[in-house]
Amino acid sequence: MASPFSGALQLTDLDDFIGPSQNCIKPVKVAKKPGSGIAKIHIEDDGSYFQVNQDGRTQKLEKAKVSLNDCLACSGCVTSAETVLITQQSHEELRKVLDANKEAAPGQQRLVVVSISPQSRASLAARFRLDPTDTARKLTSFFKKIGVHFVFDTAFARNFSLLESQKEFVQRFREQANSREALPVLASACPGWICYAEKTHGNFILPYISTARSPQQVMGSLVKDFFAQQQLLTPDKIYHVTVMPCYDKKLEASRPDFFNQEYQTRDVDCVLTTGEVFRLLEEEGVSLTELEPAPLDGLDLSCVAPPALTRPSPRTSSVSAEEPSSHRGGGSGGYLEHVFRHAAQELFGIHVAEVTYQPLRNKDFQEVTLEREGQVA
């Protein structure tokens, strides 16, 4: 069986992924409870364990398990427990929700929303030799054909991430005289890198990481908060799927930071990689080139959810047709160029028409400097 993991992270026939139950050598701290006397452990034929107390009473013992959150919080390794995420967040889970919607009574269905990243859109466009805009429209057509209600572009959410990053950098720059942890600001929307920083460097590096949410999680907040209110639905009545270029985005969606305790739901319920969407297309026997295009939905005020999904008298608008968009400086998600241009104007009154990159040791390391009268500002 072919491995479902990203090939770039595999070495020959090996991969660096382990499940929480496999090869974990990190001891788990267990709080010692006051003993209530001597007890025996009895093992049944089926392998279950029972505690036999001195008075003869028996109690079945629960099997100890290491959860995904335990694995993410552990500093024993930096390996992603993606085998768990494959079962919790996969195109099969999306199928289950869509199938359940078909069987559900009117008013009991979940509103299914898919948010597509520009990177995944570009990859599928290259695979099918289509224009990225046409690919976005055909993907919208495909998802709605299988039962999805709304399809959004996460480039819209990236605007919020970029604006928040601009604001944060300017604020930190102005506070650097009073705080040793103000600069530098490290920005990354890569959950794997964040996980690495947390587990291996901790407080040494965490204060310098930007607090702005990634586009995926901004989209999650918009869908489960703003959009849910517009549709007169509670967050748990919406099933939100994102299409992302990397498996590690599943890690990000699973973090407890993005879990709504009140409604027991995540901002992003399921993350599909580009490869999983391609697999879904294959299983449905569909080629993007054969589909009729349909407009993407846009988060504003012009249409409503299907009547069966909303309460009586929903607001008259919340979504409109939208064209897919992109940002300058996409190589770093747009963070470098947008923050650099904004900071130059806001802090030094310098308008930067074109950002010039200077390679350092190799093309993977590039530097950008702001100069005024030949001096670095």
UniProtKB/TrEMBL annotation:
Would the keyword 4Fe-4S be found if you checked this record's keyword annotation? Answer: yes
Q: Which GO terms describe its molecular function?
A: 4 iron, 4 sulfur cluster binding; metal ion binding
Say if the entry is tagged with keyword Transferase. Answer: no
Q: Which Pfam families match?
A: Fe_hyd_lg_C (PF02906)
Q: How does this chain assemble?
A: External component of the CIA complex. In the CIA complex, interacts directly with CIAO1 and MMS19.
Which family, according to the similarity comment? Answer: Belongs to the NARF family.
Question: Know the name of this protein?
Answer: Cytosolic iron-sulfur assembly component 3
Q: Which gene encodes it?
A: Ciao3
